[in-house]
Please model this.
Amino acid sequence: MALAAMYVEANADYRTVPWLREWQAFWLGAIGRQANGLSDLGADEHLTDDDRVARFRAFLRDYRSWLVASEGPLVTAAGLSADKLVEFTRTVDAVLAGDATHPDVHRDVA
Model:
């Protein structure tokens, strides 16, 4: 989510959302904490109501567009393809929407 944190910083609309700014700081602080080198998204702590979920899903859509538009510089600067990053945002969005038709969304049967 480090690039998502950069997008929050780059977008004047999202930069003014206090809870998103707090979450942005969490993303940056969580980089590399998991054994697989990924970071914890921290959704449970920050998506505390339906309005936030809707706002974050809109953020994901805007972020996807930014990733696609920025792919050239991402590849040049960091060797990153937007494909995997965009797919990750789609998976997160599907989880938030409860879309069990998405192949990476699994319902907890506990």
Observations:
- Residues 89 and 109 are 24 Å apart (CA to CA).
